From TrEMBL:
Residues 114-126 have a biased composition (Basic residues). The lineage of its organism: Eukaryota, Sar, Alveolata, Apicomplexa, Conoidasida. Residues 38-61, 78-113, 146-173, 196-211 have a biased composition (Low complexity). This is Uncharacterized protein. It comes from the Eukaryota. Residues 38-173, 185-211 are annotated as: Disordered.
Length: 211
């Protein structure tokens, strides 16, 4: 006795199985391209499970003879098989997305912990040290520190200028004193000579007057 099968039942089941396997394989390739080993392994296992389930569904659809009285139910069976395959694929996608989110959250937490480590090590214990550290990092305190440094530099420059002026004054006064001493020395040495020259002239004048 020949088994009468509904037209398109096996083709629909095979198409659904092929679509599910193709989507799973594409997701596996995408995970491998992202170099995510954990996701790739999970996708590979899910792909194998989906392919096996699809093959089993297709084989069962081929082996089970349809009822002659319910020929109109064969398209509904194919739609149910395709919907089951799509729901399984959607569940797998959701699971992978959840895994990706968890991994991203873990990475973010690790990065935040690594950023906080140096600040936690450098924290002082006393409240005064904490206040001083915060004041140093505050922008207003930084500006005030810069102003203080500039004022100190200006004061140092003024002191240097005053010292230079004092040195110049002392040098000029010393030079004047030397000049005065030299002039006095010249005057003292020249005065006796002038006296000796004036005495014979006076004597000659007196003799002429007497004659």
């Amino acid at each position: 006795m020949q088994v009468i099968r509904a037209p398109g039942e096996g083709a629909a089941a095979a198409a659904a199985a092929t679509a599910a396997a193709a989507t799973a394989a594409a997701e596996t390739a995408a995970a491998a391209a992202r170099c995510d080993t954990a996701e790739a392994t999970a996708a590979t296992a899910a792909t194998a499970a989906t392919a096996a389930a699809a093959e089993a569904a297709a084989a069962a659809a081929k082996q089970q003879p349809p009822d002659r009285n319910q020929k109109q139910g064969s398209p509904f069976k194919a739609a149910a098989a395709s919907s089951a395959a799509s729901t399984a694929a959607n569940r797998q996608k959701q699971q992978r997305q959840q895994q990706q989110r968890q991994q991203q959250q873990q990475q973010q937490q690790q990065q935040q912990q690594q950023r906080r480590k140096p600040y936690s090590r450098a924290r002082p214990h006393s409240p005064r040290q904490l206040f001083a550290a915060r004041a140093l990092h505050h922008p207003l305190s930084a500006a005030s520190n810069q102003q203080q440094q500039q004022q100190q530099r200006l004061q140092q420059e003024e002191q240097q200028q005053q010292q230079q002026q004092q040195q110049q004054q002392t040098l000029t006064e010393a030079a004047r004193q030397r000049q005065l001493q030299f002039c006095a020395f010249l005057f003292s040495t020249a005065s006796p000579r002038n006296r000796q020259q004036q005495q014979p002239q006076q004597q000659q004048q007196q003799q002429q007057q007497q004659q």
